[in-house]
Specification:
The protein has 5 helices and no strands. With 87 residues, it is mostly helical.
């Protein structure tokens, strides 16, 4: 059998995407747990102050899931939308 040649490699254009892909393909459980804990601890004040209307029932549920932990005004807006959409 002949040896398979190595795959070509290139320098990534977007270093953030390269890092993200590297983390996604990582199997180090401790590192993944640290990343998940850090993401859960992030506060999203810009999203909480958003006045964008709900784009539908499914969008309202996504907003509720994202803001359920801290119950900001955006969460309340999504709850009211779902109650009005399907009483």
């Amino acid at each position: 059998m002949t040896a398979t040649p190595p795959l070509p490699a290139r320098v990534p254009n977007n270093r953030n995407m390269a890092t993200t892909l590297h983390i996604w393909h990582n199997r180090n459980r401790r590192l993944l747990q640290r990343i998940a804990a850090g993401l859960r601890a992030l506060d999203h004040p810009a999203a909480c102050r958003s006045q964008e209307p709900m784009r539908g029932y499914a969008h309202a549920h996504q907003v509720m899931a994202a803001h359920a932990r801290h119950r900001c005004p955006r969460y309340d807006l999504a709850v009211r939308y779902t109650q009005q959409a399907r009483p």
